[in-house]
Amino acid sequence: MTEFRLHLDDVVAVGGDVLRFIGRTKDHLRIPQWQDMRTEKVRQIRDDELAKLLEADDGARMLSPEDAKVALETGAPPVGIGIIHLEDIASPWERRRVERLARYCEAWREAGRPPLSDTNLLPIIDAVGGELGELVKLSPRSIRRFARAWDKGGLAALVSEAKNRGRKTTLSAEALGVVEDRIWDTYLTQRAPSVKMTLEAVHRIINDKNERRVNGDPQIPLPSKKQLQARIDKIDAFTKLCLREGEAAALKKYGPRYAGVVTARPNQRWELDATVLDVFAVHPQTGEVIGRPTLVVAIDCHTRMIMGWYIGFAYESFVTAMVALRAGILSNGALKQRFPGLVHEHPAFGMPEAVAVDNHLAYSGEGFKRACTAAGIKVLYTPVLKAWWRPIVERFFGTATRRVFQRMPGSVASNVLKRNKETPPETVAVATLAQIEEAFARFAVDEYAYEVHRGLKTAPAHAWKREVGIHGVIPPKDKQTLDAALAIIEERTLQHYGIEWETMVFNSPAVAAARIAPGAPAKHRISVNPRDLSSVMLFVPSEGRWVRVPLVKPVPAEGTILTFDAWCLSRELLKDDAQRFLDENDKDGAFRRVHAHVLQMFAEPPSGASIKARRRGARWAAWDKRPRAADPDTYDEAASAAPPSDDLFAGMGAAAPGAGSPGSGGDADDGASPAEGGGAYPDGDVPPPPGPDPAPRRGRSGGSRGRKRPATPAEQEADRAEPVTNGPLAPEAPAAVFFREDGSFDLDEAAKALGMDSEDY
């Protein structure tokens, strides 16, 4: 019920009594107290009771001081004034409502109090509604009800009783005070206790108070959980979350949302970021785990097209950023040559106007700024620890992780606490770096680009084609100019031991001379060629020329060239298994041995311990490369009769090993063979696409645990006609080596070709 604004010494006549208002009770109920002006007895009349008395014909009437004085002196029945002034209503909203309804009632009185029919009330409603500017007019039925009440009880009859409906709290004032204190001091704290724990704290306090009460004093009733929850529900959700979990969590969930990134054309804004993949990559020959690769992606904000990427063991750095940028700027038409399994071409390329990055050292360094300035690209730095300033690339990382990397054997959760009792991913990982890159390329080019994007309402590839047709694409500069702009030029402080770059040390007499030269700057510029790290170029300002500084630490394998990707891979192997390459007699030769291992890792025969891992990898590769198109209509009787195990090994010959694959998604000049050191900046041509998958070879049994059965004559004839392979790791050999003249399979010869014992085979 709305609380009346009563003033001291206000007078009301109730029946034959004349009552004077003397104040309200001091508890939370605030009940009005009235004193009989004849007997001086005090009685309480609630606001809702007073409203009902004022509405009744023979109920209460508000008296003016003069009428009250006459009634007391003469004893005559009091004549009330019958109204309550608008300023006496406490609620502003209720005051405006009563004033609005009173205007309709006064218009009805000014019209001569006609019968309350629809015909008589409609003109009044139209006139008053137009005067008040109401968009929704009241109905004649409502005006009829309000007019009758106003005619009997005045303005008091128009006061709403909506707040007086429903169940009222049964908590005492003391219990309610304890509940409110515990809500704000216990429940709404960073400890974030539950409602049950808060209720237990309330009960402890109330029980302590009840124990200290003397005999005869009433006990404070204990509130229930439902009553406590009802008081908590009256607090808005933002306040509860802010006090329990912090302002950042409350703003993230209930804060305002804005339009986000708004672009008008393709290549207007790119987002560039890197993440460590949630999957382990293994040695392509031995199956040993190498580590988790790094993915760097450049994405166009206007069309959501993936422009370029890098996948490798290099950490997020200036080098990997330049690889991804260069791959996005140049045409990606050579992707189908590097990955023959791609169905579509990758049409996205061009020079970006701006690139949004975080504050990682890879992007905040002078080298990245200089390269972007030379290429005419504006760098946009986003605030620290606010990933939502780059929402597009962050969302893409989540999509790619769920749909590609978490489906691979060896997938690992970013949080180690979420592993629970699952199998350690290092023991089941089978995907090589080349397979991871190929799976990502297929997802980015064939799936993500041609699926309807929820934000665009169309596929990114279709959006690119439409927008490029309208706005066009800024053509990239010629290759020489682009290479000069995106060259790996950084600034380093010259030390007494030389120049340090990516934990490698380069030194020569020219470094010492440049360091002590008159007017030498604090930092000198160096140029790095990732294809050949045997030396770096140092710019000497005093002479105005570049000088070559050789690599002194670490020392690569004799007669080989160290590339950037080979260095990153060697560093990962040393970090994971350093004891394998250490030698007490030659402690400084550990890197030479690991570098030689990296160069020879593809030429080594597989070990018997890796056979299971290779078989798992073959099964995964066959599943991952399953055809997306519908099955052919023709029926192959021979294929239908073959056991299901043959299908699992059908795609083993399609894998193309390459631990040094750059993963940049760039042109044909971006890939060197692993035997040449591998790297993101190769010199050679694109490796030839692998040939068609070999026909499946029938095993010795129908399944891993099935009983042996003899091959049928048709199967023996097919085995003689087709070469036998054991996946991508088996050496090439004619079929005659594995089969005898009688058509039986020669197990010893096959095991010898694989460098294994026949029992292990």
TrEMBL record:
Region (Disordered): 609-736
Biased composition, class Low complexity, residue ranges: 638-659
Gene3D superfamilies assigned to the protein according to its UniProt record, in alphabetical order: Ribonuclease H-like superfamily/Ribonuclease H
Biased composition annotated in UniProt, kind: Basic and acidic residues: 622-631
InterPro entries: Integrase_cat-core, RNaseH-like_sf, RNaseH_sf
Every Integrase catalytic domain range: 262-468
Biased composition range(s): Basic residues: 697-710
Biased amino acid composition, Pro residues: 685-694
Superkingdom, taxonomy of origin: Bacteria
Protein name as catalogued: Transposase family protein
